[in-house]
Design goal:
The N and C termini lie close together (11 Å). This protein has helices spanning 42-48, 162-169, 228-234, and strands at 6-10, 13-23, 31-32, 72-73, 78-80, 87-90, 96-101, 106-110, 118-121, 129-137, 148-149, 152-153, 156-158, 181-183, 199-204, 215-220, 224-226, 264-266. The chain is globular. The protein is mostly beta strands. The protein has one domain (6-266): Alpha carbonic anhydrase (Carbonic Anhydrase II), CATH 3.10.200.10. The protein is built from three helices and 18 strands. The longest helix has 8 residues, at 162-169. Bound molecules: zinc ion. Zinc ion (ZN) is lined by residues 5, 134, 136, 207.
């Protein structure tokens, strides 16, 4: 899955707004995990990643809490909450600042000092301004998303529509190496969102260290469509800085975490096979 969480900051709390992407061209869409790959342990990540990224080697990478992310979203764990209001999303294209290679993923930064633009409604008690959004993807189209739906993993995870996505894909060659950044003109991120605004929500955490348990996750039910060549462009980025031995930026997602005692709410009534995947 191309999943693009859009993170909005509001005091110490974060809203993680996430969209799964499916591949449009070619036979592969979402891929059902075999039961043996559906695990929440680090060794699973090690199997899917041939080497653990340095990000996961420090003390801050040790989870300790009871509301970690990502999770596998299952219909049987999900409860329709008719009290969930629709999301209100309004972003400001002028607030877009730059795109950069963080050495772990590709991220687009916004000026969050701009009043008004952001996300509210849904499960959110406050208004959240958009600070950044970023992408996770796999080495191949069979996996890549952080969240999964009904054991289905998508080639990437992000928030976006593929024509708009092309604007971002076009700057990737300029930020091939770690810490490279490129200024980005006005960019309206809501054009990356699916038209259908059905979503799941649950209390979770950041999926990178320090794994802080302060995120209200909102996962769009409908995946967005991404072309195979756009996915391929993401895989031309590097984890490594200029002059270092090149390591391709792939499999930059955290393995699944257990739901534990959490409530997973849906803004829509479940229908058989209605995941849109
Ligand atoms: Zn993320």
């Amino acid at each position: 899955m191309l999943r693009t969480p859009m993170l909005g900051r509001n005091h110490a709390k974060t809203s993680g707004f996430s969209i799964l992407a499916k591949q449009v061209w070619g036979a592969l869409r979402s891929h059902r995990l075999r039961p043996e790959r559906l695990c929440s342990q680090v060794p699973c990540a090690q199997r899917r990643n041939n080497a653990l990224h340095p990000l996961w080697k420090g003390p801050a990478s040790k989870p300790g809490g009871s509301r970690q992310s990502p999770i596998n979203i299952r219909w049987r764990d999900s409860v329709y909450d008719p009290g969930l209001p629709p999301l209100r999303v309004s972003y400001d294209a002028a607030a877009c600042r730059y795109a950069w290679n963080t050495g772990y993923l590709f991220q687009v930064e916004f000026d969050d000092a701009i009043e008004g633009a952001g996300i509210s409604g849904g499960p959110l008690e406050n208004h959240y301004r958009l600070k950044q959004f970023h992408f996770h993807w796999g080495a191949v189209n069979e996996w890549g998303s952080e969240h999964t739906v009904e054991d289905r993993v998508y080639p990437a995870e992000l928030g976006s529509h593929h024509e708009a996505l092309q604007t971002l894909v076009d700057v990737l060659p300029e930020i091939k190496h770690k810490d490279a950044r490129v200024a980005l003109g006005p960019f309206e991120p809501s054009c990356l969102l699916p038209t259908c605004r059905d979503y799941w929500t649950y209390p979770g955490s950041l999926t990178t260290p320090p794994l802080t348990e302060s995120v209200t996750w909102i996962i769009q039910k409908k995946p967005i469509e991404v072309a195979a060549n756009q996915l391929a462009a993401f895989r031309t980025l590097l984890f490594t800085a200029l002059g270092e031995e090149e390591k391709t930026m792939v499999n930059n997602y955290r393995p699944l975490q257990p739901l534990m005692n959490r409530k997973l709410r849906a803004s829509f009534q479940a229908t058989e096979g209605g995941t849109g995947s």
